Amino acid sequence: xxxARSFAAPARQCLxxxxxxxxxxxxxxxxxxxxxxxxxKFHGTKGSDGKYSVTLIEGDGIGPEIAQSVKDxxxxxxxxxxxxxxxxxxxxxxxxxxxxxxxxxxxVKKNLVALKGPLAxxxxxxxVSLNLTLRRTFNLFANVxxxxxxxxxxxxxxxxxxxxxxxxxxxEYSGIxxxxxxxxxxxxxxxxxxxxxxxxxxxxxxxxxxxxxxVRAVHKATIMKMxxxxxxxxxxxxxxxxxxxxxxxxxxxxTCLKMVTDPVPYNDKVLxxxxxxxxxxxxxxxxxxxGLGLTPSGNIGDNCSIFEAVHGSAPDIAGKQLANxxxxxxxxxxxxxxxxxxxxxxNIEQAIFKVLAEGKTITGDLGGKAKxxxxxxxxxxxxxxxxxxxxxxxxxxxxxxxxMPPKPPIRFPTKPPATPKQYVRPSLPIRLANPGPRAPLRxxxxxxxxSSPVRRRLPPPPPLQWHETSRARTGxxxxxxxxxxxxxxxxxxxxxxxxxxxxxxRGSSMAPTLSPDAHETGREDxxxxxxxxxxxxxxxxxxxxxxxxxxVKRGDVVTFWKPHKPGEMGIKRIVxxxxxxxxxxxxxxxxxxxxxxxxxxxxxxxVDHDEDSIAARDGPEVGKVVVPYxxxxxxxxxxxxxxxxxxxxxxxxxxxxxxxxxxWRDWWRLREVGDERNKGExxxxxxxxxxxxxxxxxxxx
Length: 701
Known about the structure:
Helix content: 25-40%
Enzyme class: hydrolase
Subcellular location: Membrane; Mitochondrion inner membrane
Active site: 509, 572
Strand content: 5-15%
Mean pLDDT: 62
CATH topology of the domain at 39-146 and 290-387: Isopropylmalate Dehydrogenase
Shape: globular
CATH class of the domain at 39-146 and 290-387: Alpha Beta
CATH superfamily of the domain at 39-146 and 290-387: Isopropylmalate Dehydrogenase
Number of strands: 23
Keywords: Hydrolase, Magnesium, Membrane, Metal-binding, Mitochondrion, Mitochondrion inner membrane, NAD, Oxidoreductase, Protease, Transit peptide
């Protein structure tokens, strides 16, 4: 009774003050709200320039540096956003309350969305947390904190993918506390049905939006039977509105114990909880994936939403370009998805994950040495590469889908160039004589070009039985195996839409290598892409072959040819540079330690190169040297040297792009049509076998 008499009056006084105060939106603002079927949806519109306006609160300390990284990356990605920078330096009003400038409030209310860097609360009597001030000013009722493991940054936990939603306006953080007597302080935990309904309804709605089928309420209703009991009973009522979403509840301490033991069982759930529990549990989950520097956050309100980096302002490193902008970047990606710009969000997100997975250009807190602007430049570089390509894999969420550039027109030259330069023809008619059941050709040209001396209709290519079998077994979608480029010891080029894909392996040759099960799996461990119509100088191939290629990993796109004189070489555009990683068709990268046991898989009939020898590993011509379905120019004296030599080393080195050549062990077969220049130099070996199922006839204009 003494305790009740001592605390009842102060408690009532606190609640009366809360009703009059702007600091209790759960009582003064939420109670008047009429709930809709969907809450916290973005309703902004584009301006006359076709862009959304977004308020940017750069923040304190390292805030301007990481905010600049976001602006640079968004500019490079052509995101339809116009930044409106504001200052939220607080002041105390006449009532002694912390407030932010009116123009900043007006900007956020006008744009409906804001991106915020870290803020430091001013030191001085009367100031409260700026983050808390923003949440209360704009009634940001839900804090969404996704925590997902990032490839390339090792932690004791793998495959973490949790989503936490925290009630943001009341609970222990309602700010209702007072001194009863000296040495006794009372703080009130405020839970209302209205605020609980709002955040719970948003949690179920968010689970549906991101494709999760379970929502779990985290509570301590066993101890706080009335406050947490109200939150839990409200959750059970709201769950009836979402019959497609499973609902259960769990005690806070059990959740913490299970999550630090094994967080994977929480990957299919959305966790929703009152304010204090969410504050603690969300930071704990951030620790599972590497800290707050890798964790995005979004504060959702009825009308406005603010997305933020939740780490500190780090004044000790401010201005030194040492800060990690990842958290703010990932928060901005949450903002883009909230605004409906999902394609732009996916593009930037994949570029960030690509840079982090490489680990070559990361900041000091992640174990690297890169500056803030260098990290941003690496993301921009990855973004520019990705924009040139479109990858089609089975997992549309984890794999970026980028638009392909427009297909260039195909023009057939009427005659070879006056000076025999290296040239890759866009298309040449190719015909198989009695093709075998697993001939690795598909979607080839069925007629000669209009300007070609060969004016005959060729039969359509046979179906690829091995390809269909592979597709049925693996369910993968592979590239079209129409071969439309060079086939030498250095590279094998395949056409996909309007890009060439080069298969390469380790070693000085960069030649494609066969796997015994190639016809069953169609596996490609590395894909290197160069532009359509590219002219490749052989010297650059040799130069590139001396370099180490094992820096390539999943996710990168590489070409090893750099234009020394782009005008002379005729290179239209280089879409990637050395050292970037590759998306393997089967979704994994070849590890150098298992190179001997898991060689690249290509269809049989392609070349296998080892040191100075070339051989076909599969098919009826095992052991014979084959350069199939390719077009190579033989330049200058290399023409004679190649034909006169029976040594594989000089023969291999003499192969340059341009002329159509097949090599069989110690003899060559050269077929020319309508080429008057080299009639006197043509040498035909006698050991020519006609009609082989794997020996195509090649026609050269």
